Please model this.
Amino acid sequence: MEQSRDLQIQKKKVPHLVILPIPFQGHVNPMLQLANLLHSKGFSITVIHTNFNFPNPSDFPNLRFELIPDGLSDDNKKWTEDPISAVHVLNDSCQESFHDCLSRLISDGPLGPVTCIITDEIFYCTKDVADQLKLPRILLGTSSASLVATMTSFKLLQQNGLLSISDGEPNTLIPEIPPLRVKDIPDIGTADPEIFERLGAETHNAMRSALGYIMNTFDGLESTELAKIRQDIHPMPLFEVGPLYKFSPGSSNSILTQDYSCMAWLDKQAPETVIYISFGSSGSFDKKDMVEIAWGLANSDQPFLWVLRSGSIRGHDSIELPKGFEEKMQERGRIVNWAPQQEVLAHPSVGGFWTHNGWNSTLESICEGVPMLCSPYLWDQNLNARFVSHVWKVGIQLENGFNRSEIELAIRRLMVEIEGKKIRERARDLKENAMHCIEKGGSSCESLETLVDLIMSL
Ligand code: UDX
Model:
């Protein structure tokens, strides 16, 4: 059945999809994974990408790339300092160039007429362009279903005056949306709350005429939240097709160069002993936090692989490790600028992931069955960490920032104590659920087929 439909696609004109990612690592990854996946289903794909963080096209032989200017200033390019502003600048300045590029592709592009466009949900300017050019549009949401479902409930309760929280104390539980606390509600990550509100409003508006909403998650993990989204939130079809990276393993979407030398080091370590540490593409720390992390790792006596990205220590161009640290860690620890994370998490010697809980990292850890130590710091990360520790119960959250003795204790709890063993068992179960979802007949596979059918019907 599936095979005959794939043949049908080949015989008919090949449908041409135009993809527009937001050019930040956590957003580019799932979008290009989706692009590769749809290519494998028989579609031709053009990726329209900003010159900021433009990927190397030779890493993506199945995709055709078009370049558009991004309009970002040097300040915006340090996007981690004010990511929401950078998103608005991208929307404001890309609308015209996206329109021009798309018009060109429609009239005489090498891959034929455009069937449909797929854009990141926060590239809200694409709604007007698609409406003007009368093109169907599908959105990709790159966060968890838990985030979408919970935040929508939170906003509704807030608007109707039904929230019982009376103070802003960060650890206060919000009884209407358990198990969240005040501090788990996405941080605005910007000095100006109005621009965050604008992002919510614009994104919401852009959903209105979209044909469908694709999510990088799977039913075996977030069935309750997906059902809630289906029922209450989005009247449009919802396609949960995650974990996307599992459908196209080994394809690197990394903007930074991944250092594969750590894999040989991992090969030398005993099974499930190494703790892997990475706080994503946007994390930055004060130097004193880096010092606490370093000594917490050194004192834990556990082997570790630490991603310490250049530029991630605020106010410092280069990274200077604390005196005596390298002598103490010797062969027990390894530091890299950027790792092949998916391969690292899948390595048998890795037994724990200390993460900032960006959605991609959280999903990758769950899908490789690796328990987490959670240190979220902004946006959806607090909510993801809360679900990891209190709903899926596959991790422990470090609640009080970075303190070397707390870090040492938490690493031991996760890596060697009974508590950690139980967490590991649950992590293995979730990994199995993920694998079932992407098998033939599994929920993500089925959802993908429905998405393909929808596009074919256009
Ligand atoms: C951002 C936000 O922080 C996050 O909250 C949101 O959910 C998505 O956008 P980022 O901080 O980069 O993303 O985190 P994450 O979503 O975890 O994505 C990081 C990606 O980079 C992952 O796919 C991971 O595999 C990759 N990575 C990370 C590497 O390839 N190498 C590394 O060393 C670290």
Notes: The longest helix spans residues 83-108.
